[in-house]
Structure formats: C-alpha cells, structure tokens
Specification:
Elements (H helix, E strand, L loop, with lengths): L8 H18 L26 H5 L12 H5 L16 E6 L8 H6 L4 E8 L3 E2 L3 H10 L3 E7 L7 H13 L11 E3 L14 H19 L4 E4 L1 H8 L11 E4 L17 E5 L8 E4 L3 H9 L1
Parallel strand pairs: 1-2, 2-4, 4-5, 5-6, 6-7, 7-8
Antiparallel strand pairs: 1-9, 2-3, 8-9
Helix pairs in contact: 6-7
Length: 296
Amino acid sequence: MSVRRPGTRSSRRTLYAASAALLATFALPLTLPGVATAEVSPLPPAPGRAASPLADAAPARGTAYMGMGVVAHDGEGRAPIADRGLAVAQTEGVDVSSHQGSVNWSSLAKSGVKWAYVKATEGNYYQSTTFNQQYTGSYKAGLIRGSYHFAAPDTSSGANQADYFVKHGGNWSKDGKTMPGVLDIEWNPYGAACYGLSKAKMVSWIKDFATTYKARTGRDAVIYTATTWWKQCTGDYAGFAKTNPLWVARYNTSPGTLPKGWGFQTIWQYTSSGPVVGDHDKFNGSLDRLRALANG
C-alpha cells in the first residue's frame, strides 16, 4: 500500500500542474541569489495551507526534484504489471530528495528495493538538507546508492555545476556500493522549459557537465531525462548515447520511445506513487549487472 507523506510527489504534482499553467500565463521572471546556500526561502506552504498564486507560479530555488514536470507535461498512464514485456530482469530502486525527509530505508529494503539515488545538489546554489541521512541510511540498509544533481543551465556553466556536484556529494568511489552520479536534466520548474537556451547551446551545456564530471571522477554520468523534453530542448541529440547511460522518465506501462541514439534505457522511472517514498524505478538488468555499474 502506498504511504503518502506530506509533501511527497503524489500531492505535489497537482500543485506543479497549477504552477506550470500560471507560469505560462504570466511568465514571471526570477532573480537567482548570487551566493550559494544550503537553504532556500521561502519554504513551501505547510500541508493543508493554500499558497499564494505567486508562490505557486515560482517555486523556491532548490525545491526541484527528479521527475518534477513529468505528469504535467507527459501525463500519467497505467502502472506496469510486474515486469511483463521487458526483455531482461529488472531490479527495483527508488529516488529521493529533501521532499521525502527522513526515509525508512529498512522498510524499503524489506520490500525488495535494492538501490537508491539521492538528490545532492541543484545548480551551484543548493545542497540537499537531507542528503546525509538519505545517502548514509540507504548504504547502512544494504542498498547500492548514488547521488544526483538537478541541472539549472540558466544559472552557470555545465563545468561549474559538475564541480559543485562532485564537491557536495556527487563523487564516486569503487567500493561496489556507489553508482556513478546522475545529471537530472528536464523541464525548468522556475521558468521556460529549456532554460532560455537554444538546442545547440543546451547540447553544449550538457557536454560541458559530462566532460567535467568524467574528468573529476573517472565515470560517465548517467543522464536522467524525459524523451519529450529531450526532443524539445536538444533536438533529439544522439551524441551521448555511446558514453552516458540513460535514465528515462515515463509513468506508464512501458518506457516508450527513447531519445535518439539509445537502444535501451539503463534505468526507467515508472511511477511517482509507489510504496513508502513514491518515486520508484527499474534498473534494466539483474542485481549482478547493477553491481557492475557500481564498480565501473
């Protein structure tokens, strides 16, 4: 049975859909603070309290999470039935951010979850306030874990954000329990979907991030995205498929059409309303293959 926590994605996606509609109507600008911070203000409204239209239209910087725009832009279909129709064994995992708070990792491990990705950073201005509990807690529960960075291409260069990510939780070590870092590149929750960049400039920004991350860690970053966003904002660029594993977001019975160049997804985010934390994913392979990804 799904456990709905205050502020989890099942309750947030309705607010986000309203936010997207207001944002498209009013196109409100946002000024980014010039100093990096681990906290953001104002905080989201308390559960049950209505936010002002302005607050809805412009979420606070730092509050973004993996898959924030999926339901609003791509909709939500039926959940997959077990692993029917998938070519290989699937290994269950979750992704979390500060919205989930203190996660019950023991319950997740007992339910069959084998791995987790934890939000570490956003842009060059935010570090997750729950990163330590989530990253260390998943490890202690026996899960293979990694961290992700929510991209903000309108605020600084890809290289700058890759450096920031590595310094604040995005590094990799060959211990068999740490997966390579993830670049979460998707709809901009704070403004224009493609962050004001042309398709060519967006591709250059992603290259800048990926090249820097590889130089700093020795690993190719996993790219998390949705096919519709990728087509809209990169022109369906195929150049990362040979080096960067794909994590595709689609809340439906199958991963659907993938971005150009990738013949298969490494990870599929298939729901935002799964057990315990909501955000559930399938690694496209057995646990042994997951360990191979961790070991590089």
